[in-house]
Design goal:
Radius of gyration: 20 Å
Order of helices and strands: EHEHEHEHEHEHEHHEHEHEHEHEEHHH
Shape: globular
Distance between the termini: 27 Å
Strand order of the largest sheet: 3-2-1-4-5-6-7
CATH class of the largest domain: Alpha Beta
Strand content: 15-25%
Helix content: 25-40%
CATH topology of the largest domain: Rossmann fold
Number of strands: 13
Number of helices: 15
Structural class: alpha/beta
């Protein structure tokens, strides 16, 4: 390690949703323990909005500074999303000018992550991208993720296939680190609540068989709400069904309000169905442990369920191209296909399942990779390997 890497580096870590917060909690704790890194969180988007549970309170419990960068993500259509990116870029430029970090970390593939990346790139601040190289070809997220990969200077990827794809995009090998998914570290590092603790937290009895559902708008579809409405129709046809059906809150994307209202209407006529706006990651993983099946189009269906393991039904095209473990059953976004997949999942008995997204030890790998980075000048001067 050269002398330029010996000073303490301030790293600004952008968090905009419950999903990336789940992936960041344990890596943040590991970074706080480093004597070479000074992490702080730039909280934005849904993380600050009451509509989506204002999960920033969880960050405030951690021993790191939090700077709020407001960006309204109450999105009705693509124009709203485009305008939000513009407003957020200005807000992040101002925040980065105040903070002057040495590195900016952005996570995964949500469209609002383009704003801090745009600002950091223009301001010559090296960018660290988490979870590049994955695929979700049914959503705008796929293009956003690939754009962030080419803007970034350091890549912290989850799987071997993701590692290979980032290299195939022309990124230099020394910049690409396979670390695994940070959300899986909860399985090794967090005490997960049992059924009784979850019932006390949720205020309901979780009757058998428990179905947990996480379904979001599909941003590349003409009808972004198609997956959710098809799932609700499939569950409607299964009634009267025993057991609790628990819905996670949908993401802040085009169509989110329609999905929320449809789920709320379903719950009003279904006594054993509930939805929760803000589930801590430990609670969500505890629910997966208690569930008979998981169903939806969320990345969690593919990334976290194999580590339980629990049979999982993946609906539609939103996660098309993403790696799957042996516990996942795919189906199209129509009620008949979903019903058939749910029936198959209920009949499935799982043994050991290998999770391609990691082993629950991402935090220490992330810290080691960031501690060993070269100086700013070398990070900024990228060279493509394409054509060589």
């Amino acid at each position: 390690m050269d002398q330029a890497t010996q000073h303490t580096r301030r790293i600004a870590i952008v968090s905009s949703s419950r999903a990336d917060l789940a992936h960041l909690i344990h890596p943040l704790r590991a970074l706080v323990e480093s004597d070479r890194l000074e992490p702080m969180v730039l909280a934005t988007g849904a993380l600050l909005q009451d509509t989506f549970g204002a999960s920033v309170h969880r960050l405030l419990e951690e021993s790191i500074p939090v700077e709020e960068v407001p960006c309204d993500l109450d999105i009705e259509d693509g124009v709203d999303a485009a305008r939000a990116i513009g407003r957020a870029t200005i807000a992040f430029a101002d925040a980065l000018d105040r903070i002057r970090p040495d590195l900016v970390m952005v996570v995964a593939d949500r469209f609002e992550m383009l704003a801090p990346a745009n600002a950091a790139l223009a301001m010559k601040i090296p960018i660290v991208h988490v979870e590049g190289g994955e695929r979700s070809e049914g959503a705008i997220d796929d293009a956003v993720r690939n754009a962030l990969t080419k803007m970034a200077h350091v890549h912290l990827v989850t799987t071997e296939a993701a590692h290979s794809r980032v290299l195939a995009m022309g990124e230099e090998a020394w910049r690409v680190h396979r670390v695994g998914a940070g959300s899986l570290d909860h399985f090794l590092r967090s005490p997960l609540p049992d059924r009784g603790e979850l019932e006390a937290e949720l205020g309901v009895e979780l009757t058998e068989p428990l179905i947990v559902a996480a379904v979001h708008p599909v941003t590349l579809e003409t009808e972004p709400t198609r997956d959710a409405l098809a799932l609700l129709e499939a569950l409607e046809r299964r009634k009267p069904a025993e057991g609790t059906m628990l819905f996670a809150f949908p993401n802040a994307d085009e169509g989110s309000r329609v999905v929320r209202e449809a789920v709320e209407a379903f719950i009003k006529r279904t006594p054993n169905a509930i939805m929760r706006t803000n589930l801590p990651p430990e609670s969500w993983l505890g629910l997966l442990h208690c569930a008979r099946i998981a169903v939806g189009n969320s990345s969690s269906i593919l990334m976290e369920t194999p580590s339980v393991p629990v049979p999982a039904v993946c609906i539609g095209r939103r996660q098309e191209g993403r790696e799957r473990a042996a516990n996942v059953i795919d189906c199209t976004a129509d009620p008949d296909s979903i019903m058939q997949a749910i029936d198959e999942a209920f009949e499935t008995t799982l043994g050991a399942v290998r999770n391609p997204y990691g082993d629950g030890r991402a935090s220490e790998r992330i810290r080691s990779a960031l501690e060993a980075l070269p100086d700013r000048e070398r990070l900024l001067l990228k060279t493509t390997t394409l054509g060589t």
